[in-house]
């Protein structure tokens, strides 16, 4: 199989391949459909509005669900009176939730009262279904809840103090979601602080930290802070549930048809075979849509009670306060190095809050990115009275990279080295070496002294790197069907959250069958089809495309047998190219794909195949230099008199194994960079400390980037063959989002000569930092 | 949003007969259930209704009233702007661009193209503050009838540095900042169909005077037009705003300067700050500092410093002083650039 990077170290590697799987593809240059810019198969449906998202689903007799949410951040519920809502004209069902399935939960499972305790403002309590959304909204106001209010804490630093109000009185656990930040099970809590977690799939501490610092010629200690970011998908979380006496259909805006089905079956004590989940189109998902959620359970009960389908979509405010977020962090970093730049020791201590949930680790990027013999991390979860965190596009790593990649930049400044040259020295990853080289060339990187521009508006450049492990999921099965009229169909339960999964499946099958993308119909996002992986962890392309190719290959073998009969030869003598079966040594003896199918004795042939284990073994289990690394370069301008920052240009050098669809990959990288800029400069969930309520649960005062904030983005995409599966592809969604914020932060430092240690880097912080620096100089 | 009925008024008289409350009155506790209010574009009102802060029983549509969207310019008489003019029309109007530069600049930088296509001049001036405590149903704040200003000690990065009392909100309208600088007059039609003309600066009400409102408008009263004096000879204007984003952002700070020049010398200037105080803040100190001075880096800086002399920042917004100093200085220098 091809192995390595074209133009650098491309070679071949021997792999043991299961008998049912196809021989290796050559590099993309030699392929017809894979590795090209292919228009999305659903582009027209999306731009013309015919694509049906969950928010668009209308069923006969459908009711509209609405949740009643806690008005205070911490309380015990004394009583709930739903009678007025129940009697409101047009209300068909009312339900009070008995447990919370989101966030962390006490291990004991014991309940202190009939109702779940309120642990954050906006926690769902009850819900109802009515004939219209308007009626539901009016009726929900009639629900009365009597609380016994408790002291609360919403701030990370306050919550860590002794004597702070305690969110969970006993130890808690929580399962990590697909692609979510690791959650080490069984850790103890003290007050609101749980942990530390010191191990990950990269192993535990290594070397001897004390010795490492003793050997250091230079030690840098810094503290970095990151904010809480909310996901803000265009389509909010939501479902339409038709309970239908236990033959359930759930339309869901989800990243996992599989998990949604499993959660529903569990919540309602149904066999998984009685629950069908459909997600033909999902309007964005960044890690928080992996489960059914309390709202999904609520919709299930309301549909069960009313006997009608119930639609329950969260509104934008509910989305902000209850549907997940990226936990914040404070990271205490200590780095030891030799004067030549070699690292001797790295210590990381972090605290973060996922509100009432777990998963505030910082991703172990510090553990895995650089060559450093002595390393130790201690990562603590801190509970606060705020909505539960969730996986969010490279969970942990985005926070971790902001600290690590500025720390390395600071080391370069201390050593008076080019930060790119320093990384060249301490980073062993081959792919990032190539990315640095290609990216720097495209960017025109020349080391520039910080704050050296004249005038109030200063330009700066910065670089940062990303690490993301390559993860595979074996719940990846694809069925390929061919029909007598020539139709080719691909089926899998995997969902397309906007990344282009449908299109890559069509490409892979078309490539294998010598067809074009448009010859293949892709039907996905339905648990009636063979199981698909969750869309998280940048797993999907690497997991599902080999299954699709394997199934198409099996189908091709069948068709070869058929063609051999028609062409009166052996199957081994036949080639399939450009829609035609022909003899290898006599191209005149041929039959077209369509003609062959027309002559089938049966109406339809079906082949199913799954993802097998990686040919070369999984990446994880070793200290990995992330295979899905990236290097990003930023150019910014900073108005030092108003604090206004404009990101002018980004160059992003990326790899994702064998690229399948160049346009879609670039689109993912663009999105990752824009989201990273938002994280660096704009987005910030603000909760009032005295009331516990979020002050900006909207997209007016919660600031997202719009068109003027999008820089000139240039992408260097590098093919990186590993001989790991029949497509050798990987995902790109998460690696695209990791390096951006530190690259921008390093560029801001380079522009103004003062470093900002907490996110987002707002004009207020820039002005304050510059004024502080000026006052110090004046002294 | 609550249920409400809708009446699309065909005439001013008919509209005024229906209305019995101001939007501000509907935000106070104990408002009657039968409040009837005006709706022009509804940009501000619908936000307040969606949040559940305002629950009027009836909206009276005034967007289609005949004659309210007129614009007229006469070099002797000045500019007349109908209250229903959209921000988009103001932004593209050449008479405004040529004679009232700062107004053109503010109208074209406010909000988004979509909002500017809908939003009206009258609605823009009558909108309520964007203070996030005021805008949130969960916070029963001082301006909504309680005794607590949460921002005073809470999250106040976006709040006032000048001219505030207990309430530290800032006024939301950029047009108000600019029109105050132009000494515009507001022509109001009272509930009794009489005309009342007041200077722009008297149109706005400080919370220290009445915390429940931001303008002098009474129930049933309607802004009919805005009158700008004829552009003075040798008079130039400039408007600058800054925020964290370039796209659709409420100003972190904004400045409108209207000055009569003689060469590079400033005969007199009106300097108004937005997002600085609960109403557009006329900086007498800056105006005094630049009067009869040649505008240059040092005099502009001195005027900017003078403007901030009495600023008292809150816990999170000291940065605004630097930003305002920058904008005032740059706006003055732009006049002579």
Which descriptors would you attach to this protein?
heterodimer; A: 779 residues; alpha+beta; Aldehyde Oxidoreductase, domain 3; Aldehyde Oxidoreductase, domain 4; 7-stranded mixed beta sheet; 6-stranded mixed beta sheet; 19 helices; globular; B: 337 residues; Uridine Diphospho-n-acetylenolpyruvylglucosamine Reductase, domain 2; Enolase-like, domain 1; 5-stranded antiparallel beta sheet; 14 helices; 31% helix
Task: Characterise this structure.
Chain A is 27% helix and 23% strand. In chain A, β23 (477-483) and β24 (488-492) form a beta hairpin. The longest helix of chain B has 18 residues, at 319-336. In chain B, α6 (101-109) packs antiparallel against α10 (174-181), α12 runs antiparallel to α13 and α13 (297-308) runs antiparallel to α14 (319-336). Chains A and B meet through α3 and α19 of A and α14 of B.
List the helices and strands and how they pair.
The complex is a heterodimer of chains A (779) and B (337).
Chain A: E1 2-3, E2 11-12, H1 43-48, E3 63-69, E4 75-81, H2 83-86, E5 91-96, E6 105-106, E7 124-130, H3 133-140, E8 144-149, H4 156-160, E9 172-173, E10 189-190, E11 193-197, H5 209-215, E12 218-226, E13 229-230, E14 238-242, E15 248-252, H6 257-268, E16 275-278, H7 293-306, E17 310-313, H8 316-322, E18 325-326, E19 329-337, E20 343-352, H9 365-368, E21 375-382, H10 397-415, H11 419-426, H12 430-443, E22 457-466, E23 477-483, E24 488-492, H13 501-512, E25 520-524, H14 540-567, E26 574-577, E27 580-583, E28 590-592, H15 593-598, E29 604-610, E30 630-639, E31 645-655, H16 662-681, E32 712-718, H17 735-738, H18 740-752, H19 763-778
Helix pairs in contact in A: 6-7, 10-18, 13-14, 16-18
Chain B: E1 5-8, H1 12-18, H2 23-26, E2 36-39, H3 43-50, E3 58-61, E4 71-74, E5 78-82, H4 87-92, H5 94-99, H6 101-109, H7 113-118, H8 121-126, H9 150-153, H10 174-181, E6 185-189, E7 195-199, H11 200-203, E8 222-228, E9 235-242, E10 253-262, E11 265-274, E12 281-282, H12 284-290, E13 293-294, H13 297-308, H14 319-336
Parallel strand pairs in B: 1-3, 2-3
Antiparallel strand pairs in B: 4-5, 5-8, 6-7, 6-8, 9-10, 10-11, 11-12, 11-13
Helix pairs in contact in B: 6-10, 12-13, 13-14
């Amino acid at each position: 199989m091809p192995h390595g990077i074209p133009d650098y170290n491309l070679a071949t590697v021997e792999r043991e391949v299961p008998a049912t799987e196809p021989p290796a593809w050559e590099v993309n240059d030699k392929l017809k459909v894979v590795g090209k810019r292919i228009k999305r198969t659903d582009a027209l449906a999306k731009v013309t509005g015919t694509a049906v998202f969950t928010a668009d689903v209308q069923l006969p007799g459908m009711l509209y669900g609405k949740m009643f949410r806690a008005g205070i951040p911490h309380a015990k519920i004394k009583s709930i009176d739903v009678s007025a809502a129940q009697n409101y004209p047009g209300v068909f069902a009312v339900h009070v939730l008995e447990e919370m399935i989101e966030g962390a939960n006490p291990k004991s499972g014991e309940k202190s009262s009939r109702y779940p305790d309120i642990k954050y403002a906006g926690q769902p309590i009850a819900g109802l279904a009515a004939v219209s959304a308007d009626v539901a909204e009016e009726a929900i106001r009639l629900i009365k809840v009597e609380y016994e209010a408790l002291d609360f804490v919403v701030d990370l630093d306050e919550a860590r103090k002794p004597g702070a109000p305690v969110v969970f009185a006993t130890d808690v656990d929580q399962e990590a979601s697909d692609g979510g930040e690791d959650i080490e099970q069984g850790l103890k809590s003290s007050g609101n602080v749980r942990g530390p977690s010191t191990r990950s799939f990269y192993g535990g501490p290594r070397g001897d930290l004390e010795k490492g610092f003793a050997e250091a010629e230079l030690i840098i200690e810094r503290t970095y802070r990151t904010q809480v970011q909310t996901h803000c998908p265009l389509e909010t979380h939501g479902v339409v549930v038709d309970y239908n006496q236990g033959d359930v259909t759930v339309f869901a805006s989800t990243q996992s048809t599989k998990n949604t089905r499993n959660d529903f079956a569990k919540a309602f004590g149904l066999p998984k075979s009685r629950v069908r989940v459909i997600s033909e189109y999902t309007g964005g998902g960044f890690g928080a849509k992996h489960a059914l959620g309390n709202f999904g359970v609520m919709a299930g009960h309301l549909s069960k009670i009313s006997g009608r389908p119930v639609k329950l979509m969260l509104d934008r405010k509910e989305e902000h306060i209850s549907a997940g977020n990226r936990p914040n962090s404070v990271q205490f970093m200590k780095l030891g190095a030799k004067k030549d730049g070699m690292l001797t020791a790295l210590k990381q201590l972090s605290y973060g809050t996922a509100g009432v949930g777990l998963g505030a680790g910082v991703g172990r990027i510090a553990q895995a990115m650089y060559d450093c013999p002595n390393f130790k991390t201690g990562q603590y979860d801190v509970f606060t009275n705020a909505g539960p965190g969730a996986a969010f596009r490279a969970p942990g790593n985005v926070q971790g990279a902001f600290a690590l990649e500025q720390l390395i930049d600071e080391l370069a400044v201390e050593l008076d080295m080019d930060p790119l040259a320093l990384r060249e020295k301490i980073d062993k990853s081959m792919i990032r070496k190539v990315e640095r080289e290609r990216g720097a060339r495209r960017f025109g990187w020349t080391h520039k002294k910080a704050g050296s521009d004249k005038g109030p508006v200063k330009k700066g450049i910065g670089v940062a790197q990303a690490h993301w492990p390559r993860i595979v999921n074996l719940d990846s099965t694809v069925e390929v069907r061919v029909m007598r009229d020539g139709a080719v169909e691909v089926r899998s339960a995997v969902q397309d959250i906007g990344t282009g999964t449908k299109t890559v499946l069509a490409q892979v099958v078309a490539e294998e069958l010598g067809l074009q993308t448009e010859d293949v119909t892709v039907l996905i996002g339905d648990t009636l089809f063979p199981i698909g992986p969750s869309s998280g962890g940048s797993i999907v392309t690497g997991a599902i495309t080999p299954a699709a190719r394997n199934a198409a290959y099996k189908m091709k073998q069948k068709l070869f047998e058929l063609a051999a009969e028609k062409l009166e030869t052996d199957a081994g003598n036949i080639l399939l190219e450009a829609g035609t079966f022909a003899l290898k040594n006599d191209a005149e003896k041929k039959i077209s794909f369509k003609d062959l199918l027309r002559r089938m004795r049966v109406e339809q042939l079906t082949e199913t195949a799954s993802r097998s284990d990686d040919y070369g073994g999984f990446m994880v289990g070793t200290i990995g230099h992330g295979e899905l690394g990236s290097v990003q370069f930023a150019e910014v301008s900073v108005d030092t008199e108003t604090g206004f920052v404009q990101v002018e240009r980004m160059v992003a050098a990326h790899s994702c194994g064998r690229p399948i669809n160049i346009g879609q990959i670039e689109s993912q990288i663009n999105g990752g960079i824009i989201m990273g800029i938002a994280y660096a400069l704009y987005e910030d969930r603000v909760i009032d400390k005295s009331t516990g309520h979020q002050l900006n649960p909207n997209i007016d005062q919660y600031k997202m980037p719009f068109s003027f904030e999008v820089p000139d983005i240039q992408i260097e995409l590098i093919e990186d063959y590993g001989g790991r599966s029949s497509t050798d592809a990987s995902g790109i969604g998460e690696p695209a989002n990791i390096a951006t914020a530190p690259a921008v932060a390093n560029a801001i430092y380079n522009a103004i000569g003062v470093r900002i240690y907490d996110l987002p880097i707002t004009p207020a912080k820039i002005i304050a930092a510059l004024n502080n620096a000026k006052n110090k100089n004046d002294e | 949003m609550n249920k409400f009925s809708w009446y699309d008024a065909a005439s001013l008289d008919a509209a005024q007969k229906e209305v019995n409350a101001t939007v501000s009155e509907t935000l106070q506790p104990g408002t009657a259930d039968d409040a009837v209010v005006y709706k022009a574009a509804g940009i501000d009102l619908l936000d307040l209704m969606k949040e559940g802060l305002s629950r009027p029983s009836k909206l009276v549509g005034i967007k289609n009233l005949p004659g309210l969207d007129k614009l007229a310019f006469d070099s002797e008489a000045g500019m007349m702007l109908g209250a229903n003019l959209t921000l988009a029309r103001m932004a593209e109007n050449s008479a405004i661009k040529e004679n009232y530069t700062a107004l053109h600049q503010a109208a074209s930088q406010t909000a988004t193209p979509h909002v500017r296509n809908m939003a009206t001049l009258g609605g823009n001036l009558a909108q309520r503050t964007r203070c996030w405590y005021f805008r949130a149903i969960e916070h029963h704040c001082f301006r909504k009838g309680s005794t607590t200003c949460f921002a005073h000690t809470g999250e106040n990065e976006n709040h006032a540095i000048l001219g505030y009392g207990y309430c530290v909100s800032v006024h939301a309208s950029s047009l108000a900042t600019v029109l105050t600088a132009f000494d515009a007059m507001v022509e109001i039609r009272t509930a009794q169909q009489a005309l009342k003309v007041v200077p722009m600066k008297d149109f706005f009400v400080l919370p220290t005077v009445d915390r429940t409102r931001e303008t002098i408008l009474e129930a049933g009263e309607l802004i009919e037009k805005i009158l700008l004096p004829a552009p003075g000879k040798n008079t130039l204007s400039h408007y600058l705003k800054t925020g964290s984003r370039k796209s659709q952002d409420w100003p972190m700070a904004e400045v409108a300067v209207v000055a009569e020049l003689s060469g590079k010398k400033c005969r007199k200037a009106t300097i108004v700050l937005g997002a600085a105080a609960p109403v557009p803040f006329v900086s007498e100190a800056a105006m005094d500092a630049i009067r009869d001075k040649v505008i240059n880096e040092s005099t502009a800086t001195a005027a900017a410093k003078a403007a901030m002399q009495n600023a008292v920042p809150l816990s999170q917004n000291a940065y605004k002083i630097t930003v305002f100093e920058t904008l005032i200085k740059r706006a003055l220098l732009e006049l002579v650039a």
